[in-house]
């Protein structure tokens, strides 16, 4: 990975003294770990930093110290922030209503690792790292910030989550070096892995069962298609369900259709190693990474599947 120049980002952090930190809607462990770690680093510099999410926190990483500082932006009871740091977010649109809490002239530092990041910031720190947490680590190293054990745990959590346990393709030798350094700072590796990967509710495991039961193979066994209806989606967090399509040998692309309301689907796409699913999602107005992306489509389940399979067929 070619690391970017951190100077402008360092200056941005040095110049401000009151920041709003945020990440994308449906916040995940990487975005949240980034917010929490950066808040701690800024606190060390004697600066004020509030975390305000576009939607209410769901306990995603409530096992981490610092979680109590994570707020829905409405809870902050103030607005007109003149300095914002947007983390792990490809476009300004995806911070939703947080935009209403920024001053019209607000300066924005955009720190992200999504392909196709729209570089919406006043300053953009965008690189092809495993995770935004890894990028924050490099920034903190370049700037000489003190990494406390609490911060190390927050960053390690985001890295472990976004790499799927150091398995996904954005994992590099540098990712392991960063993880090793964080581990040496006292991170409880087994505890964090358990919290991230062994913490489903019974209902969520049953939901996974429904999705697996619905699985069909298409395009010569290279695409696994799964489906969850509205009722099944209410059983819990379905973010990881799509990954199970890649358990099947020979499958290149896994698809999960999530019925939001009748005739409206959120679609998650995962790719094993060849197909760039961010391009496929983009052709339906969505986006994401080469190996993990999402989009929205309307129609019956069969119509939505047909459109997706036609597009995927061009990329196989
Ligand atoms: Mn991320």
Compact overview of the structure:
The protein has a six-stranded parallel sheet, covered by helices on one side. Strands 7-8-9-10-12-11 form a six-stranded mixed sheet, with helices on both faces. It has helices spanning 7-15, 29-44, 132-143, 149-162, 173-184, 189-197, 202-213, 230-233, 277-282, 301-313; strands at residues 18-23, 48-53, 70-72, 81-87, 102-112, 123-126, 216-218, 223-228, 253-261, 264-271, 287-288, 292-298.
List the topology elements.
Blueprint (H helix, E strand, L loop, with lengths): L6 H9 L2 E6 L5 H16 L3 E6 L16 E3 L8 E7 L14 E11 L10 E4 L5 H12 L5 H14 L10 H12 L4 H9 L4 H12 L2 E3 L4 E6 L1 H4 L19 E9 L2 E8 L5 H6 L4 E2 L3 E7 L2 H13 L3
Parallel strand pairs: 1-2, 1-4, 2-3, 4-5, 5-6, 8-9
Antiparallel strand pairs: 7-8, 9-10, 10-12, 11-12
Helix pairs in contact: 2-3, 2-4, 3-4, 4-5, 4-6
The structure holds manganese (II) ion (MN).
Q: What would you call the structural class?
A: alpha/beta
Bound molecules: manganese (II) ion
Radius of gyration: 19 Å
Major sheet: arrangement of strands: 3-2-1-4-5-6
Strand content: 15-25%
Query: What's the number of helices?
Result: 10
Tell the overall outline.
globular
Enumerate the spans where pLDDT stays under 50 for 5 or more consecutive residues.
none
The major pleated sheet works out as:
6 strands, parallel
Order of helices and strands: HEHEEEEEHHHHHEEHEEHEEH
**Terminal Cα span:** 27 Å
Q: Estimate the mean pLDDT confidence.
A: 96
């Amino acid at each position: 990975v070619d690391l970017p120049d951190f100077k402008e980002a360092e200056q941005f952090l040095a110049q401000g003294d009151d920041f709003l930190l945020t990440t994308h809607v449906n916040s995940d462990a990487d975005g949240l770990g980034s917010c929490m770690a950066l808040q701690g680093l800024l606190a060390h510099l004697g600066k004020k930093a509030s975390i305000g999410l576009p939607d209410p926190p769901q306990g995603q990483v409530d096992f981490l110290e610092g979680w109590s500082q994570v707020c829905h932006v409405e809870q902050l009871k103030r607005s007109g922030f003149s300095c914002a740091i947007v983390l792990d977010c490809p476009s300004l649109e995806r911070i939703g209503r947080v935009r209403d809490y920024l001053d019209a002239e607000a300066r924005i530092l955009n720190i992200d690792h999504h392909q196709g990041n729209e570089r919406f910031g006043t300053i953009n720190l965008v690189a092809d790292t495993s995770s935004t947490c890894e990028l924050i680590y490099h920034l903190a190293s370049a700037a000489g910030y003190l990494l406390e054990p609490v911060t190390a745990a927050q960053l390690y959590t985001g890295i472990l989550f976004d790499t799927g346990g150091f398995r996904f393709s954005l994992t590099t030798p540098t990712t392991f070096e960063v993880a090793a350094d964080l581990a040496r700072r006292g991170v409880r590796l087994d505890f964090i892995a358990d919290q991230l990967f062994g913490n489903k509710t019974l209902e969520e495991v049953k939901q996974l069962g429904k999705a697996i039961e619905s699985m069909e193979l298409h395009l010569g066994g290279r695409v696994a298609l799964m489906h969850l209806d509205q009722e099944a989606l209410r059983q819990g967090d379905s973010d990881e369900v799509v990954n199970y399509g890649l358990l099947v040998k020979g499958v290149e692309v896994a698809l999960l259709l999530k019925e939001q309301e009748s005739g409206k689907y959120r679609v998650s796409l995962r790719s094993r190693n060849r197909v760039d699913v961010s391009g496929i999602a983009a052709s339906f107005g969505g986006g994401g990474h080469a190996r993990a992306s999402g989009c929205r489509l309307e129609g019956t389940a069969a119509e939505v599947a047909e459109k997706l399979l036609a597009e995927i067929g061009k990329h196989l």
